[in-house]
């Protein structure tokens, strides 16, 4: 059923151009040139970067994002996590914690007995944005106590400094069916209890969240790609590409993230410009 749902969404993923964003004044050509310049002048990462894939993706998105960013910074401290076969957000969360603890085991056990991983930055594609927010919550807020004994990661949270999300359904996905037999799909539906829980706990996250959206995104909807009350940094889509499904390779977004990972000023300007009224 999940595969069928993905096929349907892929068909309806949306293709769009659209107006340029005055608060994100960067073309793909300019982004390519800047990424090439970054490659010639590497800057080490301040901390490991965790790259999270999207819904039903076996690893293409995370690998693509990692490859572009690694080339731009000249550092290999990346941890990739994909969720192609995951069934629940709890499973996704555990997978992230396990991967980071395995790669960087020097986390911190607090006097309370809770544990947090080493400090990381996160770059998350689509569903991965919700996974990242979930993993960054303290365990008592993130995990059903009934599952604690079966989940060795239940007492640990992802210690996030900055989180960059690409077209994540922060306010739910426009095409996610709340009656689906796929739990991930139900939890991504607009108005789901899962998303409400993430929003309730977001103020206590104590990390910087930078959200990116793309016009013409029919799967999520550009207006849903940042938390309530926040406007994403949006870019126009490319007319020959599905706006949502190709976003992980958008050189404009990746160049903006790369500059921030290098400690350089981003192209994006705050506050973000309003989203065009038709989202295209």
Task: Describe what is shown at a glance.
The chain is 32% helix and 17% strand.
Would you count the extended β strands for me? 7
| Spatial separation of the terminal alpha carbons | 30 Å
- What name does CATH use for the topology? Rossmann fold
Structural class: alpha/beta
Tell me the series of helices and strands, N- to C-terminal.
HHEHEHEEHHEHHEEH
Helical fraction equals: 25-40%
Instruction: Return the average pLDDT rounded to an integer.
Output: 90
Principal-axis shape equals globular
Structurally, how many domains make up the residues?
1
Structural commentary:
This protein is of the alpha/beta class. It has a single domain (2-106, 114-261), classed as 3-Layer(aba) Sandwich (Rossmann fold). The protein has helices at 2-11, 28-40, 60-73, 89-103, 127-135, 139-142, 183-187, 193-201, 251-261; strands at 49-55, 78-83, 108-109, 115-125, 156-166, 208-214, 233-235. Strands 1, 2, 3, 4, 5, 6 and 7 form a seven-stranded mixed sheet that branches. Strand 1, helix 3 (60-73) and strand 2 (78-83) form a beta-alpha-beta unit. Helix 3 (60-73) crosses helix 9 (251-261) and helix 4 crosses helix 5. It is globular and about 50 Å long. It starts with a helix and ends in a 19-residue tail after the last helix. The model is unreliable at 1-16 (pLDDT under 50).
């Amino acid at each position: 059923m999940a595969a069928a749902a993905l096929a349907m969404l892929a068909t309806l993923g949306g293709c769009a151009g659209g107006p340029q964003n005055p608060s994100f004044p960067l073309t793909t050509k300019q982004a390519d040139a800047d990424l090439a310049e970054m490659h010639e002048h590497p800057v080490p990462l301040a901390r490991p970067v965790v790259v999270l894939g999207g819904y039903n993706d076996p690893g293409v998105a995370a690998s693509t994002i990692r490859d572009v960013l690694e080339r731009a910074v000249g550092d290999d401290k990346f941890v990739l996590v994909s969720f192609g076969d995951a069934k629940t957000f709890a499973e996704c969360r555990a997978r992230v914690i396990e991967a980071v603890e395995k790669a960087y085991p020097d986390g911190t056990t607090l006097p309370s007995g809770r544990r947090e991983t080493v400090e990381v930055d996160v770059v998350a594609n689509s569903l991965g944005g919700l996974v990242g927010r979930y993993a960054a919550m303290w365990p008592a807020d993130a995990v059903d106590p009934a599952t604690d004994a079966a989940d060795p990661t239940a007492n640990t949270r992802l210690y996030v400094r900055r989180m960059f999300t690409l077209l994540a359904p922060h306010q739910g996905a426009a095409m996610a069916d709340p009656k689906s037999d796929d739990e991930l799909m139900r939890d991504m539906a607009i108005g789901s209890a899962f998303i409400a829980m993430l929003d309730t706990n977001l103020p206590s996250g104590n990390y910087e969240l930078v959200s990116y959206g793309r016009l013409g995104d029919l799967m999520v909807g550009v207006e849903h790609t940042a938390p309530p009350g926040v406007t994403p940094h949006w870019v126009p889509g490319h007319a020959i590409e599905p706006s949502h499904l190709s976003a992980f390779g958008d050189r404009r977004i990746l160049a903006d993230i790369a500059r921030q990972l290098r400690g350089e000023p981003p192209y994006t300007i705050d506050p973000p410009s309003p989203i065009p009224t038709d989202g295209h």
